[in-house]
What we know:
8 helices
Amino acid sequence: MKATIAGVWLVVAVGWVWYLRASGQSPVEWLEGLVDAASGAWWAIPVFVLAYLARPLLLFPASLLTIAAGILFGPIVGIPVAIVAATASAFVAFQIGKTFSPNTVREGDGATVIDRWSGRMRNESFLTVMLMRLAFLPYDLVNYSAGFLRINAGAFVAATALGSLPGTISFVL
């Protein structure tokens, strides 16, 4: 299972880099083209959500896609679409982190900052993820580490949706 996921991840990442080089585009130019093509199109929301779901595999900045939601859909539609897409995308990364985690994550002795942070993340999952979202810590780092530490998935999803709301509103607007 791990080898399959790693293989898919590698194929997607290499394919993405190959496509960008073959087309002569930067990731931002690609996004601009997608926004131009999708503007007003009936298929814009599902393609936007799919692009957001692929984002953690490509390590594409979530902020750029969230800004694109505001351009494409405006605030009334863009905010809920961006929250749903970002939360689903975060869960994809969470699941990947969980897949590559050992079946049991060792408990540290609390002597290091990492041990204390890991313990808090496992014991107070909702609050810790919520605070990390509100502090604008790197989105993918939080997602993958939460999965790797095997925190409660429900707490992760709820804290991600709520904690991402202020940033999402500001980026969409």
